[in-house]
Structure formats: structure tokens, C-alpha cells
Amino acid sequence: MSRKDDKAPTLATAYAVKTPQDSIELYGRWAKTYDKDFAEKNDYVNPRQIADAFAARATAENAPVLDVGAGTGLVGERLKHHAIQPVDAIDISPEMLDVAMGKGCYRAPIIADLTQPLDIPVGTYGGVVCAGTFTFGHVGAEAIDELIRIAKPGALFVLGINKKVYESAGFKAKFEEFAAGMRGFEILELQGYGARASAEMQASRSSVAVFWKL
Asked: What is the C-alpha to C-alpha distance for residues 153 and 198, in angstroms, rounded to an integer?
């Protein structure tokens, strides 16, 4: 094992991924330590914010829910706190999903590459949430097409997007493209990291797209 492989991954490591295979390898070795060595250490509050924003707007019609890029289940844990069920977890990393499923907050795991068409029927989900996946080197705006396809009419979307890629990676343009098929669109600008994070992390922002599919 190389010296590079011995080092604990960091946010910079995550931002450096270029391909889906890079993500599979990174998150495969990060899965068991991610919650403690990254989320807790850096006061990563964005998953909680995403879940809270969803819960504040959701009705019984917004089920089941799909947690996109679920990772170790941080969003799912918070949704369970709000008694929002059932929730399915989709992620490219089997190891991350193993950790998430061990928390008892998901109905089913779905291993999938979000940059490709999803093997999920049209109109399956009443809610779609995402934290930490739409960012540097990960999943771009092209995934929005599939997420809207698999959502029911009336589905609630709460999608966290790194503010620095919101326009450059095509998210702003994608939402404008779908404007006629959504209602209540708004962007919540949130601070994704709390007081225990570095000053640089605290300065970062998440542009959270909230809307309902018509």
C-alpha cells in the first residue's frame, strides 16, 4: 500500500476525484471512518440542513423518498428523526451504503452511477433529497434529468449544490430548462460547516434548490 493510500481522505481529496471509478475507490476506503474523521471532526451540518428543509415542507404525498448520494446515511438519520419514511439510499459506493444501511434509517440500498441512466421506473418517488453529491468532480447537472424522471408529479426536491459549481457546472441552466415543469422554486444559501470546521470550510456555501415537480 502506498503512502498516499495510508493518509486519511480529506475534503480536498474528495474534490480531486475526476471519474466515477475515482469515487468508488475513494469512498470505498473512506466509508468506515467518514462519520468520525470527516463529518464530526469538521462539523458537517449540511446533511442535517437538507433533511430539515425537506421535513419542513413535506406532506404524506412526498413519500417514498430517495436520498441521492446517500453515503453513510447522514441525511437518512435526520429524516428518521423527523419520522419521514420510507427512504431509499442510492450511491455509487457499496461500502458507504453498507454503513448507511446499518443505521436502520433506509428501506433499501441502490448501487448506481448517477451519471448514467437509472434502473428505476418513472414516477417512483414522492421526494428527492441530496447533500454533498453535486460538487467538484462528482455528479453534474446532467443527473437532474433522471431524478425528475423517476419522481412523481408533486414530488418535493431538496438538492444541495456547492455554490461554486452552481452556475459553472450547469445547474442554474438546468433548472431554467425545467422551469415550466416545477413550482415553488427557490434557492436557500446555507453554510454547510459549523464552528468546529476550518475557516475555509465555514466560508463555503451550499446552494440548496427547493421545488415541487408538476
From this structure: 41
State residue 143's pLDDT score. Answer: 95
**Nearest CA-CA partner of 103 in 190, 13, 31:** 31
Report angle CA 102, 91, 42 to the nearest 5 degrees. 75
Q: What is the mean pLDDT of each run of 10 residues along the chain (214 residues)?
A: 52 66 76 91 95 98 97 97 98 95 98 95 98 83 97 98 94 97 97 92 95 98
Place of cell 428543509: 53
Predicted local confidence at residue 132, as pLDDT: 87
> What contacts 54, CB < 8 A, 6 or more positions away?
62, 65, 79, 84, 127, 129, 156, 158
DSSP 13-70: HHHT--SHHHHHHHHHHHTTTHIIIIIITTTB-HHHHHHHHHHHH--TTS-SEEEET-
Please give the pLDDT value at position 3: 37
- What is the residue-wise DSSP string for 86-118? -EEEEES-HHHHHHHHTTT--SEEEE--TTS--
Q: Are strands 87-91 and 108-111 parallel, antiparallel or unpaired?
A: parallel
